[in-house]
Amino acid sequence: MQSAVLPCKAALPHVEPELVMWYRLTNPDKSTLSVGKKLITKDSRLSVAYYSIDHGFSLPKWDLHISNVRLSDAAHYQCHVITKKNLKPTRSNVKLVVEDIIVDIQPTDVLVSLGDSTQFSCQFTGEHRVQREQVTWLKDGKPLIADATRVTISTELPNATVTTLQIVASQLNDSGSYRCSNGHGAQSREAKLYLRDINQQMSFRSCSSFISFQTVFSLFIFHVFLFIL
Known about the structure:
Elements: E1 4-6, E2 17-26, E3 29-35, E4 38-39, E5 46-51, E6 61-66, E7 75-83, E8 90-96, E9 101-106, E10 109-113, E11 118-126, E12 136-139, E13 142-143, E14 150-156, E15 161-167, E16 176-181, E17 191-196, H1 198-228
Parallel strand pairs: 10-17
Antiparallel strand pairs: 1-6, 2-3, 2-7, 3-4, 5-6, 7-8, 9-11, 11-15, 12-13, 12-16, 14-15, 16-17
């Protein structure tokens, strides 16, 4: 889920505000969201982050935080500031744009052997189009750098943008979690790549076979010894 931080630019530098209010502007009226540190709205996803000034050296901030942003949150918001020095109240407006983007990744869990090839595919759909230049692949939460063994291909279709990550001759360091992103917060769910080492499995099986052979051979000698006795 994405979060949004709306800055209150009406707060004056080095001036302690007497009262700060946040409104959501709805034509032709407005609804009160907060007065000071107290929330008026019953929406628990909203909160006011107050940063007190340090003797006038830092700027006062009264940012409005919205967690788990929804399409219905898209609107104009207003910060209204009244200062202690009886200055004229100041206001600042900020527009929140919520992009309707759906990101789907397939497959979500992959198990391959070392040296094998595999791929993940992401599809971006929704009202707002994602350009292929915006697509970013993440591995373990960090941007993935494409190279000869990790190839990315992105294509813009009429109703979607599709991107593919191809992993050629997978190595141990390829295991982990993968996501695709539009570079502006919209991400897919996590997909995981698991690797198995066939050589270790073959070595384990060979060792198990050797142990079984030794056991059978030992039993055979034991039976022969009993027969002689």
